[in-house]
Amino acid sequence: MTIERTLVIVKPDGVKRGLIGEVISRLERVGLKIVAIKMVWASREQIEGFYPSNPDWFKSVGNKTLGSYKEMGIDPKAELGTDDPVEIGRLVKKWLVDYMTESPIVLMVVEGNHAVEVVRKLVGSTLPYKAEPGTIRGDYSVDSPDLANREKRAIRNIVHASDSPEEARREIGYWFRENEIYEY
Ligand code: GDP
Ligand code: MG
User: Fold this and answer.
1) Residues 105-158 pLDDT 10s
2) What is the four-CA torsion angle of 174, 121, 55, 173, rounded to 10 degrees?
3) Distance CA 167, CA 110 (A)
4) 154 Cβ closer than 6 Å to some ligand 1 atom
């Protein structure tokens, strides 16, 4: 079965810039189906619970940050006071909570053939300055980790999309009850 569901969130920068419709159009244009949708002004606790809190996740996010520092020739210790990937991952998570609670967000469940992979492709790279033109992040943002980390905030990249079918199941279950998701 290749019909999948994935979670898409229009993040506060997307909502405030009036890009909700644009994000939805791009998903609908390829034939994906919105099967649930709502606007929520999430609490810090809700966002803390949404992004994982296990050392592996912190480490993976921290290592990505370390990788971009290395590429830019920036010393992580001088900039953030640590070069431990888990510590850096925790820091990024705090910035993410600040970001995701600064305005309402729009949550949707998107269904279709290979939905998880197709949506990630439409969304583009986590790092907007590297995201291809034609992707949502590549067309609407030029943010980068060096700038975001220097300003001690999360990278502003318009949308969230689940990374794998397992992540999608957990994330959809976190925000939606089964009776809020429609079959049509
Ligand atoms: P995604 O699945 O492409 O959204 O990326 P991740 O799951 O790795 O990270 C979650 C979110 O954290 C990203 O969308 C960014 O908003 C933010 N983020 C990720 N890596 C970094 C980083 O190195 N620095 C900063 N400041 N924010 C980051
Ligand atoms: Mg992710």
Assistant:
1) 999 999 999 999 999 999 999 999 999 999 999 999 999 988 998 899 999 999
2) 10
3) 14
4) yes
- Do 33 and 111 touch, CB atoms closer than 8 A? yes
- 47, 61, 143: residue to mutate for ligand 1 pocket, most atoms within 8 A of CB: 61
Give the ligand whose atoms come closest to the C-alpha of residue 151: 1
φ, ψ for residue 154 (rounded to 5)?
Answer: -70, 155
The answer to whether the CB of 137 is under 6 A from ligand 1 is: no
Q: Which of 72, 92, 160 to mutate to test the pocket of ligand 1 (most atoms within 8 A of CB)?
A: 92
What's the domain range around 122? 3-180
CATH number of domain containing 144: 3.30.70.141
Does the annotation count 160 as an active-site position?
yes
Task: Supply the pTM of this predicted model.
Answer: 0.95
